[in-house]
Amino acid sequence: MTDVEGRPLLTALESLIWDVPDYPSPGILFKDITPLLADHDTFTATVQALADAGRDGSGATVVDKVLGMEARGFILAAPVALALGAGFVPVRKAGKLPRETHAVSYALEYGEATLEIHTDAVAPGERVLLVDDVLATGGTIDATRQLVEACGGTVAGVAVLMELSALPGRAAVGALPLTALMTV
User: Which of 106, 131, 134, 151 allows an S-S link to 139, with CB 3.0 to 4.6 Å?
Assistant: First the structure.
């Protein structure tokens, strides 16, 4: 993984992702990534490491689109798409997109949600990389995979900033290639 100012990216991430207990509800340990986003060098290295999940062994881009899930997934996925020379597609919460959508509802570790994508956001046969901040229960990734498939696309891989090892997210990802920059 990429170094940041002479230290491993993982070390930089660990120092710039802060724990916030009982947010957004009691019992949840929220991972605040805003200090990471404010650090140019670490943010740049993070984007490059996530983008590597959309490249083959020779460094060639192997995806047509990068999908980011609302809201923090947007922050990571948009620059990953730029790094790959691919299109960016926002996956939004229900009611946020202005045209015809596909929708999937799913469970979160602290509630329920519905995600939507424009019906024409991914063309049939396009390969996509899913990018999000946290892999927890896997519900967001699985719902987004279903949205891609409803459009006729194929998920080529999943890239997340962090995986919460105490939760079953990896099982929901299944056989898809998964890149997690850190596991907590």
Answer: 106
